[in-house]
User: Fold this.
Amino acid sequence: MPSFAGFPSRAVHSTPVPAPFFSDLLPQIDHLGELKVTLYAIWFLDQQEGPLRYLMLKDLLGDRRLVEGLVSMPAISSVEEAAAARAALLDALDRATRRGTLLRAIPPGKSAEDTIFFLNSPRGRAAQESLGRAEWAPGLEGHFQAVLDLERPNIFKLYEQNFGPLTPLISDELREAETTYPAEWIEDAMRKAVNANARSWRYVDKILRTWKAKGRDDEH
Assistant:
């Protein structure tokens, strides 16, 4: 059995879990896969912002660590194992939707592969109803993609260690910076901000913009 090293002492983002999960829902769940998918959905949706928060089936299928965990495989390496993992995920999702924890919907004109899921909450129910009225379509408003990843880019770790917990907005800013600047620049700009006791992404971004416009020299 793999061991857990423990929660870190530094500040990390905490996922709020509604109290009824513990008092009403947890005593009912008798299937490990359903429990994992339910907790994953709560975590995933917390990473998003705005009223339209949902999971796409491909979000779940695309998270390697989630799928491997459902079948207790350290790595899926064959067609048969992939099929078994997919079946386990679909079964867990079906259990969660039949219980009423998650709401399932297929956007108009789409197939089962495009299924999306909402948390059964006032916001989730409202989003599902508005989807049924064709008032919005998945993907058009932007869709934050979260994954369970042990090894995140070093800039994410640096930010959490020196600036504070990651938020969805800051995560998006970091990803955008990764596509614009070399990783070394971002790391150096963060360290420069820490040394200046200016622990904000705005300050780091200002440094990066200056370096891009005027160039860097050895003193940086």
